[in-house]
């Protein structure tokens, strides 16, 4: 590794560091401060209340537009029309999105199955980052998501081909499944909050009940070897997203006799994302969600309902619409697939480069090599800035071009998930519009935190890696 810190911080090979010793005293003081609640985010208690009520409402509205109105954004035409309009909306929800017995069985069955697999299957053991609130203890993560994914795919294929459970039904029951997902999202958020209070495991509390339910109370919820926060982030949303896309493909095959390239694109795109979460699972403990965010509504609702039921509106649209409305030329298909695969490559390798760099900093030099290993996933002789805090900031690989190359690539993929429908309906672009808002907000929070954590070293890092997102542009 090459150190770019400047005077007094020579580069060259370093001895394995004990994680406990990697944060010198000044760093510990900053970490302690970062683990205190200081300011309200997301507009405080009123802001989070608005989010908690607004998102489910928006999700129902967008689903209704897609399912019943050919993807058009319907609205009341006059003030007098508002009441009948709302009554119609409610009727759609009551009739086609009530939490049916089928939805409870399928959604609940999948959750239990995913938990059972996570709990029982062997996995790659990964040490997380030292956790300041646990006196810099590192937690071990049993990374078995890939085995769980393979087991789930085989089980689903057997159930589908033997007609025990037809995957086609998933997309037909989208509304019902979404309601069950939302109920689970809400109940688990409140449950996690009360559990944290009852066991005294809460940290960074504001004292405002609603705000703390939203941000979460507990940082590392665990049942046995299963880290619930990581399990929910990987095994719940992306598995549902992938199988809803597969379900859309099965439905097209049954009704049309073929699968459109647009639907095949979505199966590939969701499959790549799901596989990436599994194959790079050992990199997830290093991410902001794992070591900083608590397990609250923001994360839980999004994992159990938000991601699975709002990221793949293009699939929902295609499952209900004549393919003639969203057919592309061959050249455009080639372009779409090329952009998706290029963005995926950058996303995969950028996340891998940073996580492996952080692992090297912890003294871990042997990495897991699950399929597919892409070239440039590990940087040989990386350059970095050594901070007074003790951590190192990577300045080479994709991370030499911008401070958030992973976000840019991830966002391009999200845009493709909508663009695969063209201009037939704006709704599938919801994911990319929402996602860019989340990412820009998150960058603000993240950089603020990094600036507080690294002080002048962060400024030096920003001078070295000038661009936030796109080199030469922004
Ligand atoms: P990052 O992986 O960018 O992690 C940010 C943290 O990494 C910083 O707080 C800092 O922490 C550390 N860091 C930042 N720059 C450097 C550097 N140059 N060298 C070393 N460490 C650095 O962000 P996230 O954890 O938010 O995201 C991970 C992935 O998950 C991204 O690809 C993102 O797009 C994806 N994601 C996807 C979502 C979805 O819904 N599809 C939602 C959220 C994320 P410190 O220095 O304290 O270690």
UniProtKB/TrEMBL annotation:
Pathway: Steroid metabolism; ergosterol biosynthesis. Belongs to the ERG4/ERG24 family. Its main location: endoplasmic reticulum. InterPro entries: ERG24_DHCR-like (IPR001171), Sterol_reductase_CS (IPR018083). GO terms for molecular function: Delta24(24-1) sterol reductase activity. Its EC number is 1.3.1.71. Residues 1-34 are annotated as: Disordered. The lineage of its organism: Eukaryota, Fungi, Dikarya, Basidiomycota, Agaricomycotina. This is Delta(24(24(1)))-sterol reductase. The chain crosses the membrane at residues 46-69, 102-124, 144-165, 177-198, 256-275, 295-318, 330-347, 411-440. It comes from the Eukaryota. It holds the Pfam family ERG4_ERG24. Keywords: Endoplasmic reticulum, Lipid biosynthesis, Lipid metabolism, Membrane, NADP, Oxidoreductase, Steroid biosynthesis, Steroid metabolism, Sterol biosynthesis, Sterol metabolism, Transmembrane, Transmembrane helix. One of its GO terms (biological process) is ergosterol biosynthetic process. It catalyses: ergosterol + NADP(+) = ergosta-5,7,22,24(28)-tetraen-3beta-ol + NADPH + H(+). It is a multi-pass membrane protein. It is found in: Endoplasmic reticulum membrane. One of its GO terms (cellular component) is endoplasmic reticulum membrane.
């Amino acid at each position: 590794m090459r150190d770019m810190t400047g005077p007094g911080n020579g580069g060259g090979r370093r001895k394995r560091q004990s994680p406990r010793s990697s944060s010198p005293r000044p760093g510990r003081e900053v970490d302690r401060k970062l683990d205190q609640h200081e300011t309200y985010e997301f507009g405080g208690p009123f802001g989070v209340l608005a989010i908690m009520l607004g998102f489910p409402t928006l999700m129902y509205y967008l689903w209704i537009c897609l399912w019943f109105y050919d993807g058009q954004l319907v609205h009341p035409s006059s003030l007098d029309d508002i009441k009948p309009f709302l009554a119609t909306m409610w009727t759609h929800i009551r009739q086609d999105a009530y939490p049916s017995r089928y939805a409870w069985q399928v959604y609940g069955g999948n959750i239990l199955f995913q938990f059972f697999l996570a709990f029982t299957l062997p996995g790659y053991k990964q040490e997380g980052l030292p956790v300041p609130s646990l006196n810099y203890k590192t937690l071990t993560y049993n990374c078995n998501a890939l085995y769980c994914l393979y087991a789930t795919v085989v089980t689903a294929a057997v159930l589908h081909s033997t007609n025990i459970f037809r995957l086609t039904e998933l997309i037909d029951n989208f509304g019902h499944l979404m309601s069950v997902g939302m109920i689970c999202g809400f109940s688990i958020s409140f449950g996690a909050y009360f559990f944290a209070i009852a066991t005294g495991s809460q940290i960074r509390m504001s004292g405002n009940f609603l705000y703390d339910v939203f941000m979460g109370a507990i940082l590392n919820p665990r049942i046995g070897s299963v880290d619930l926060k990581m399990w929910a982030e990987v095994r719940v949303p992306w598995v549902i997203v992938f199988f809803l896309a597969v379900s859309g493909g099965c439905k097209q095959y049954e009704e049309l006799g073929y699968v459109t390239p647009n639907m095949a694109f979505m199966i590939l795109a969701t499959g790549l994302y799901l596989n990436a979460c599994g194959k790079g699972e050992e990199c997830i403990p290093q991410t902001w969600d794992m070591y900083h965010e608590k397990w609250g509504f923001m994360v839980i609702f999004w994992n159990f309902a938000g991601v699975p039921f709002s990221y793949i509106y293009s699939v929902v649209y295609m499952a209900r619409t004549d393919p003639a409305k969203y057919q592309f030329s061959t050249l455009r298909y080639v372009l779409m697939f090329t952009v998706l695969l290029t963005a995926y490559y950058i996303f995969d390798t950028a996340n891998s480069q940073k996580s492996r760099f952080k692992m090297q900093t912890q003294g871990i030099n042997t990495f897991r090599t699950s399929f597919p290993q892409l070239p440039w996933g590990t940087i040989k002789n990386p350059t970095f800035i050594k901070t007074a805090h003790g951590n190192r900031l990577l300045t080479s690989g994709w991370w030499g071009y911008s401070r958030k190359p992973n976000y840019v690539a991830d966002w391009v993929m999200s845009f493709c998930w909508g663009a695969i429908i063209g201009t037939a309906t704006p709704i599938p672009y919801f994911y990319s519009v929402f996602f860019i808002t989340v990412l820009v907000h998150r960058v603000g929070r993240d950089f603020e935190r990094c600036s507080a954590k690294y002080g002048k070293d962060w400024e030096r890092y920003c001078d070295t890696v000038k661009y936030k997102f796109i080199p030469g542009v922004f």
